[in-house]
Amino acid sequence: TSVIRGTYLGLEYMRKGNGGDGGVIINISSLAGLMPAAFQPVYCATKHGVIGFTRSIAVTANMENYGVRLNTICPGFVNTPILQSIDKEENMGQYYSYKDEIKNMMQFYGVMDPSIIAEGLITIIEDDTLNGEVMKITASQGIHFQQYSQTPFTSKR
User: Fold this and answer.
1) Is residue 155 part of a domain?
2) Reduced to 3 states, what is the DSSP secondary structure of residue 51?
3) In terms of Cα–Cα distance, which of 24, 2, 21, 18 is closest to 132?
4) pLDDT by residue (tens digit) across 60-81?
5) Domain span at residue 35?
6) Cα 90 to Cα 46: distance, rounded to the nearest angstrom
7) Half-sphere exposure of 8 (CA within 13 A, CB side)
8) Is residue 66 part of a domain?
9) Is 49 a member of any domain?
10) What is the total count of domains within the chain?
11) How does pLDDT run across 78-92, given as a tens digit for each residue?
12) Is the pLDDT of residue 3 over 90?
């Protein structure tokens, strides 16, 4: 619930109708929010939720002229200490048997330095045209955006 509560709190203070100056809110999801992950079903579900929530509230913010843009960053594997936990059964629990699949995914997508995520963050902050976008960042493909079909309808409100 922290992403939802934090987003609503940010909108309350930032939106122009409440005396704010506008701005951008960037929520962090994961590549696991864009595909199924057999070894992380709950993590996967929450990351899908972050994307759906952020894209939906971005439409609302646009329709209501809040002056606030909302986007999501979905990084792949990042070179942090948590990656070392894959080899430890006590950290992986019932999903330890999937460790080889995870390692294969790490090899496919690559493991990136955190600085590339900062680069993506700066792109979203500086590009005023980005709203409701989902930025994917991987070592193998760099910074790119998830493609979605056009929303079939929007309110004329």
Assistant:
1) no
2) helix
3) 24
4) 999 999 999 999 999 999 998 8
5) 1-80+111-145
6) 22
7) 5
8) yes
9) yes
10) 1
11) 998 888 778 888 877
12) yes
Identify whether 23 is part of a domain: yes
**pTM, full prediction:** 0.89
Please report how the helices 2-14 and 41-63 are oriented relative to each other, as an axis angle in degrees rounded to 10.
20
pLDDT of 152:
62
Share of the chain above pLDDT 90, in %: 71
Closest by Cα among 68, 67, 75, 70 to 29: 75
State how far Cα 142 lies from the chain centre: 15
Instruction: Tell me the CA end-to-end span of the chain in Å, nearest whole number.
Output: 28
Q: Is 43 a catalytic residue?
A: yes
Catalytic residue among 8, 43, 66, 109, which?
Answer: 43
CATH number at residue 137: 3.40.50.720
Q: How far apart are CA 155 and CA 111, in angstroms?
A: 41
Residues 6+ apart with CB under 8 A from 86: 92, 99, 102, 103
- Residues 157, 61, 23, CA angle at the centre, nearest 5°? 145
